[in-house]
Amino acid sequence: MARTRGGSGTIRQRSDALWEGRLTVGRGPNGKQRQRSFYAPTRPEVERALETARRNLEMGIEAAGPRLTVDAYLRDWLVSRTGQVAPSTLKRYRGIVEHNIIPAIGHERLIALSGRSVERMLREATEAGLSAQTAGHIRAVLRTALNRALRYGMITRNAAADAYPIPVRRVEHKALQPAQVSALVSGIKGDRLEALYVLALTTGMREGELLGLRWDDIDLDAQTLRVGAQLQRVDGNLILVPTKTAASRRPIPFPNAVAAILRGHRARQNEERFQALDAWHDLGYVFARPTGEPLYAEAVIKAWHALTDRLALPRMTFHDLRGTAATYMHALGAETKVIQATLGHSDSRTTLNLYTHALPEGLKANAERMNVLFESEA
Predict the structure, then answer these.
(1) Among positive and negative, which fits the CA dihedral 308, 309, 313, 317?
(2) Coil, helix or strand for 69?
């Protein structure tokens, strides 16, 4: 066994071929030195872990002990995320950690966690009925949590990054066809949520962005609105949170027809304000309950499904209006970058791969264009 000693700790190769690094992190109550060990398949990995741990120790961050479990580490990680991410994101993290990760691998030692263990957890999760997409969310949360441990020198490898993900089938978003769009536009006239459906159909805004829209965000004269927040439900309460990315914080112009519908919607809401009197909550939401309070997403989805059933339209999610909007922008000749900016995507590939569909008329017109190949034969 090779052994070396230096200012950054002690390194040796064990009989099982693993490399072990040890670092003195202080002294216990009895005066004896306390040490932490790091393990890796290669010497350079252990050297890097020791160096990171030494720097962290200088900043007051103690390296993880060999007995620290995944359970204990993840609970500490959740505490560290409080105030650093949106409340809804933290709630999602906590749910995945407590319901999916800790029951499966929480008992394992953090430094000994392997990609194989993570793969087994994901496989068993899908065998128990979870979708491959949900398994991907579990892996992503664990990977994010372990990145912190890797940065602090508590581990030498990210087991979640090493694990192969469960293959996910691409989700096909639906889009309304031209005749269906005409039926929808005609069928929603006078509906209390007409303006909501129209904005979804013409701008492709996300449901949370629409429900979080306030009148201060809209300039009817300039025919422009600004997306900067979204309405989310956290622990039963509706709260406004900033949108996740810089791309999702964006201005969106809208046409004359939409401006007219929004003016009619505001007039209708003013009438509701008059009827509600003291029961009115002046919160400034564009889409609100008859008392001015924000709308629950569940109520919108219920109303949307009732509407599509009444109009004999295919059962679609409210989110599919976003896909319909992108499809029509694409069919009408909008550049990909313009569609991307309108939808608030960070990557144009997302725009093209998920939200633009070829309309039948476009396919037929494209086929007709191919006649040019045979014109010389005439």
Answers:
(1) positive
(2) strand
Nearest-5° Cα angle at 305, 300 to 306: 95
Name the phi and psi angles at 19, rounded to 5: -95, 135
pLDDT tens, position by position, 109-147: 898 899 999 999 999 999 888 888 899 999 999 999 999
User: What gap in Å lies between CA 350 and CA 8, rounded to an integer?
Assistant: 46
Q: Is 227 helix (H, G, I), strand (E, B) or coil?
A: strand
Place of tokens 């989310």: 232
Q: List alpha helices for 188-345, DSSP H.
A: 194-203, 207-211, 256-276, 297-310, 320-331, 336-343
- DSSP string covering 7-31: TTEEEEE-TTS-EEEEEEEEE-TTS
pTM over 0.85: no
HSE at residue 334, side-chain half, CA atoms within 13 A, is 20
Residue 59 identity: M
Does the CA dihedral 326-332-337-338 come out positive or negative? negative
Alpha helices of 277-359 — where are they, by DSSP H?
Answer: 297-310, 320-331, 336-343, 348-355
| Contact present, 184 and 200 (Cβ < 8 Å) | no
Distance of CA 351 to the CA centre of its chain: 15
pLDDT greater than 70 at residue 378:
no
Burial of 182 (0-12, 13-18, 19+ CB in 10 A): exposed
Buried (b) or exposed (e) across 41-59, using 16+ Cβ within 10 A? eeeebbbbbbebbbebbee
| CB 36, CB 22: distance < 8 Å | yes
d(CA 355, CA 80): 36
Residues 6+ apart with CB under 8 A from 277: none
